[in-house]
């Protein structure tokens, strides 16, 4: 099975040097779609209301074959409490 690498950027770049085996490109694409919301789930509460998370999927040759971005924007609507 081919190995794909999932580099992330959330204000800082994080290179995936380990990667994971995926059946094919479609499996790697779906893994990226699952991965981004998981990263955001834990990072958004730490650092505010305006965040962007990106994943860059590389194949074994190092070529970027897919990218995705998830953006969160929150706005407080009241001044109470």
Automatic annotation (TrEMBL):
Domain DUF6894, residue spans: 3-71
Pfam family, one: DUF6894
Top-level division of the source organism's lineage: Bacteria
Compositional bias segments (type: Basic and acidic residues): 1-17
Record region (Disordered): 1-20
InterPro entries the UniProt entry points to: DUF6894
Protein name: DUF6894 domain-containing protein
């Amino acid at each position: 099975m081919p190995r794909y690498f999932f580099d992330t950027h959330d204000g800082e770049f994080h290179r995936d040097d380990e990667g994971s085996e995926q059946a094919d490109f479609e499996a790697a694409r779906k893994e990226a779609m699952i991965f981004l919301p998981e990263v955001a789930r834990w990072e958004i509460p730490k650092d505010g209301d305006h965040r962007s998370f990106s994943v860059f999927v590389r194949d074994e040759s190092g070529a970027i074959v897919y990218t995705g971005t998830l953006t969160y924007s929150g706005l407080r609507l009241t001044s109470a409490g």
